[in-house]
Write a structure and sequence with these properties.
two-stranded antiparallel sheet, mainly alpha, Fic-like fold
Length: about 260
């Protein structure tokens, strides 16, 4: 398997600019408004985890859990992992090495880590039509991916690249999606962007289909930027843009409620 060359990535700069302007608007509220607090932002991030509970019910078993019990366990692991990421960010640690990958696996997918503690998968796997790299190739591919990421200057693009390539490598026996999404969100949050999650089963299906088409095209033309890979990057930008706007609306409303309460006293 050849990794996607970072120099051929084509991104929608207009959407990135829109996201950046929205994020700036959020921080202007928090910094300059008398009615907004920095806690509002963190509380909103953590509340987003609880919004996933309905998506993880038995009705939407294809998301991450097969039943309510697994859904509860998944949410607990997710909160623990996000708390860990927040502490790392406070300590000025961004995501960027293999040790952190294993730290995330132990927290978000402890059942997988028990099978092969602190090691990559030892068997071949296939995602749909995509045959993942053989186990002996995983260490070098992960190292190369992390090295290539350092060349990407735009944090959002770096996070999306990580997501795309780590899923394609599929380094673990299970839990790859969970580890990848948390690692991506670590990169985003370190650079002051909100975390993003799949919102519903339909979006999950679209996400899987787009990745599958991208992987298929890259198997045929590994060094060529293609419409399916571009589509995945676009969808991730859309998710972040939507999330950023929703975050701005929620933070703004929290401040307005405080202002109304104060004015009515």
């Amino acid at each position: 398997m050849l990794l996607l060359p970072t120099e051929i990535i084509e991104v929608n700069q207009k959407k990135i600019d829109q996201i950046n302007e929205t994020i700036k608007a959020i921080y202007r509220l928090i910094i300059y408004s008398r009615y907004h607090l920095d806690d509002d932002l963190l509380d909103t991030y953590l509340e987003g985890i609880h919004d996933l509970k309905e998506l993880l019910s038995i009705k939407n078993a294809q998301m991450e859990a097969q039943n309510d019990e697994e859904a509860v366990e998944y949410l607990e692991n997710l909160k623990t992992t996000l708390d860990f990421v927040i502490e790392e960010i406070i300590d000025k640690n961004n995501f960027g090495n293999e040790i952190q990958l294993f730290q995330l696996l132990r927290l978000i997918s402890p059942e997988t880590n028990k099978i092969h503690p602190n090691s990559y998968r030892k068997s071949n796997v296939q995602i749909g039509a995509h045959i993942c790299p053989e186990p002996n190739l995983i260490p070098s591919l992960v190292s190369e991916m992390l090295y290539r990421m350092e060349k990407i200057k735009i944090p959002i693009v770096k996070a999306i690249y990580l997501h795309h390539e780590l899923i394609r490598i599929h380094p673990f026996l299970d839990g790859n999606g969970r580890v990848t999404r948390i690692a991506k969100n670590w990169l985003l949050m370190f650079n002051l962007y909100p975390p993003i999650f799949i919102n519903d089963a339909n979006e999950k299906k679209l996400y899987i289909n787009t990745l599958s088409n991208s992987f298929k095209e890259l198997e045929k033309n590994p060094l060529k930027w293609n419409k399916h890979t571009e589509e995945f990057f676009e969808q991730e930008l859309d998710r972040l843009l939507i999330n950023s706007n929703l975050l701005l609306e929620k933070i703004d409303e929290i401040g307005k409620n405080r202002e109304r309460i104060k004015n009515n006293q």
